[in-house]
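Pilot study result, target chain (189 residues):
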Amino acid sequence: MKTRKHSSEDEKIHDEVPVTDTNQETAIEETTENEAAKIAEDLEQLNQKCEELNDKNLRLMAEFDNFRKRTLKEKSELIKNAGENIFVNILPLVDDFERAMKAMGTTDDIVAVKEGIDLIYAKFIGFLDTNGVKAIPTENEPFDVDKHEAVTMFPAPSEDMKGKIIDCMTKGYTLNDKVIRFAKVVVGE
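Predicted structure:
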């Protein structure tokens, strides 16, 4: 049996092994401490970011609530004063009618009064037109249930007038293409 002699190199290897284990443990502990510090730093940054986002969210909610309240107030003001513009623009027509009525009591010139009334009527129709109110055409038009209301049926004077409007009893009007009053008509049968 051969025995092996321990050389100084073997001793060095055995001596180095325990030292490396201690170095590894120290390195692992330092790495773990570094990772823990990094995690704590990341956690602090995330908490700060969360607080910033929460603050932004609260401010945005408050801003939206203010916007909603302001919009509701504007809507209520608009509804409350919606007709104001119409009435302000119709007042000159009232003035014209008052002048015409005063002139009718003091003048004998019926032609001048008639011309004045015609001017007031034209002005009033122009006012309606500028505000989107238009008369529904009825003369020789085919009967349309979406625009006309048949008051009565009458025998048509000719074949081509069957199903068409013969006479208009009451004019109909649209406001921006929406019927606000149906035309009451007599339809040929």
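One observation from the pilot: Residues 12-19 have pLDDT under 50 and may be disordered. A full batch analysis is planned for the follow-on phase.
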